Amino acid sequence: MKKLLFASSEIFPYAKSGGLADVSDALPQALKSFIDVSRVMPLYSFINKDSLQHFESFEIILAKINYSVDVWLHVEHGISNYFIQAPFLSDTQNMYSDEKGDYPNNDIRFAIFCRAIVELAQTLHVDILHLNDWHTALAALFVKEQELSLKTVFTIHNLAYQGLFAQDTLSKVGIDERYFTLEGLEFYSKVNFLKAGVLYSDRVTTVSPSYAKEILMPIHGCGLDGFLAHNREKISGILNGINYELFNPKRDKYLTYDFDEKSLTNKAKNKSSFLKEFALQGKKKPLFIMITRLVEQKGVDLLIDSLGSVLNQDINLFIMGDGSGNFVQALEKESQEHKNFVFVNRYDEALAHMAYAAADFLLMPSKFEPCGLNQMIAMHYGTIPIVHSVGGLKDSVKESKKLTCGNGVIFKTFTTKAFVLALKRAMNLYADKTRLKSLIEKNMSCDFSFYESAKRYFALYKSL
Ligand code: ADP
Question: Cα 321 to the chain's mean position, in Å?
Fold first, then answer.
């Protein structure tokens, strides 16, 4: 059996800032039945070392400086998880940033991580190294430089994050200046780590087929569209799934009432207790939710601009978003002024599960969306998604008369008008109880697990 090492800067439940951690949790687990898979991630300072075993130590050299690396091991669900403990990488309080912004030594931190990944891959004799996002991208360059025989796959989870640093980063991380060209790592006079992943990996994937096409165009290319189009031969898209162990309304540790498509009365009970908890009135009104990072990508500005029309409808709205700044202020102000709107400004795994279970509709008006997991979680929990038809949302949600998997409400132009119209269609759907029930039941019976994606990744590995 071939051996795969899956490298990511975050893996749930050890560390999570978003969907990358969910995918790094669920995809390797789904791959287990196809290939011998282990994982590697940084040992951040907040990860408890008590249950980890020491695996090995080695030294790596970056720009003539020696760094001692300790590798720790934790086996869970039959997968070996390796944790890289190294100076700088493991010294910060958080993963990438604090209140002052991104850590200024993220270049050195993640270059050390990448060197250590390649070292570990050799110790483990792996055949394939699967790299994820810019934090792991330099590993592809190191593999090529050392002329190792292992194959590399690089997955772009979100092109908006590229790992951009000043030119002197190259000398700090010991990468030759000859790489600083437009065809190489240069990007508008900066060093772009993500470019290394694209250039030096054998295959590049994105997390949905539509996103793989969209990033070749200026509107979603984040300045790299020309470069990516040049490399298009090796780029393809594989839609993510969700972790059915974690997101399963039939046995969800966060829910008071478990349910499936045959026991939707229990979903209604979850709704009642949720409304009560947040002092929202009116069980008969549809409950709309949004669970998100509060960033422009998620269409938060479009939502805020539409809130007047949205909250005038006979609905309840619950938004949970982590973030800070203007979005928070605007949402707090609106929630103080409207009794039918609750805004919670935090990241809360348990509350997210309760909200998915209680809601009738999920709002996901993302400006762009590489894949998006919320819409799939929502459908699995009998909640109808209302989405901007872009990226992975376009690939997973359809609005049609036919009953297919992935039923929802979509809007195609990114305007408040189109969004509010979609909401009105959702209200009409809510009034048509028979149709609503059949859409919910259909979505809940569909397979949004990682199994299909894992099959596709395995086919890709085999093609190498
Ligand atoms: P992204 O990675 O861009 O944030 P995804 O849709 O790929 O978006 O993944 C988001 C994941 O994070 C989902 O599991 C979602 O439920 C979860 N999530 C996002 N915001 C919050 C929040 N404030 N509280 C709890 N879970 C959240």
Answer: 15
Q: Locate 315 and state its tokens.
A: 């609905």
Tally Cβ neighbours within 10 Å of residue 30: 21
Q: What is the average pLDDT score of the chain?
A: 97
Candidate of 9, 16, 22, 362 to mutate for ligand 1, largest count of ligand atoms within 8 Å of Cβ: 22
* C-alpha to C-alpha distances, 368 to 22, 24, 211, 237, 364, nearest whole angstrom: 19, 21, 9, 15, 10
10 φ/ψ angles, rounded to the nearest 5 degrees: -150, 135
Burial label, 254 (beta-carbon count in 10 A; 0-12, 13-18, 19+)? middle
pLDDT digits (tens, 9 = 90+) for 415-436: 999 999 999 999 999 999 999 9
Q: Is 91 helix (H, G, I), strand (E, B) or coil?
A: coil
Task: Please give the DSSP secondary-structure letter assigned to residue 286.
Answer: P
Give Cβ neighbours of residue 370 (< 8 Å, ≥ 6 apart): 156, 157, 158, 159, 206, 207, 208, 211, 391, 392
Which residues sit with their C-beta closer than 6 Å to ligand 1? 18-19, 22, 291-293, 320-322, 347-349, 352, 371-374, 377
Indicate whether 306 pLDDT > 90.
yes
Cα dihedral across residues 125, 128, 132, 134: positive or negative: positive
Query: CA-CA distance, 392 to 180, in Å (whole number)?
Result: 33
Alpha helices in 1-70 (DSSP H): 19-31
First to last CA, the chain: 14
